[in-house]
Amino acid sequence: MSLSIRFYGDQILREKAQPVENIDGKIVKLLSDMRETMHAASGVGLAGNQIGVPLQLIAVINPETGEDLLLINPRIQSLGEEKEVEEEGCLSFPQIFSKVERPRKATVEAFTPSGKEIVIEAEGFLARILQHEIDHLQGILFIDRLSPRRRLLVAGKLRKINSYGREDANR
Q1: What pTM, to 2 d.p., does this model score?
Q2: Which of the listed CATH numbers 3.90.45.10, 3.40.190.10, 3.30.750.24, 3.30.420.40 matches domain 11-168?
């Protein structure tokens, strides 16, 4: 089932997500629905807050393998020192893309829907996706990582999304 994506201006995007205490059928179904929603929206990642559920859940696509990763309570264990600047977008910010600096490598630990603890050694685009989605779980949005100049450049579109939602973001 495809879920509704929350847009910039919705307060839940600024909330810190709570850890999942018990992996049950509801959590597994929710992650499956998040995966479907992410694909339907042509996204590469989706966090619980973005669908109005403040739980530490993310769905991401591994760009190298095409595999979907459904992660519970993901946590960044370490970040590489080398940084890179690449363009990012977000399903909660339709029509907005901007360059963001992030570490090129990230080590993330999480649980799978079956309850197995895993560690993901990611670099490049996958590391960026994981950092972006884990930021969401902390109430941090990718626009928060923009330079003041870049943020000023997208301010008009942000106001439109905040006022109208996705359908009128192009006005």
Answers
A1: 0.92
A2: 3.90.45.10
Cβ partners under 8 Å of residue 68, min gap 6: 35, 59, 60, 61, 62
* Phi/psi at 125 (5° precision): -65, -40
pLDDT tens for 66-123 read 999 999 999 999 999 999 999 999 999 988 999 999 999 999 999 999 999 999 999 9
CB 12 within 8 A of CB 6: yes
* Residue 67 is among the residues annotated as catalytic for this protein: no
Which of these is catalytic: 109, 117, 133, 167?
A: 133
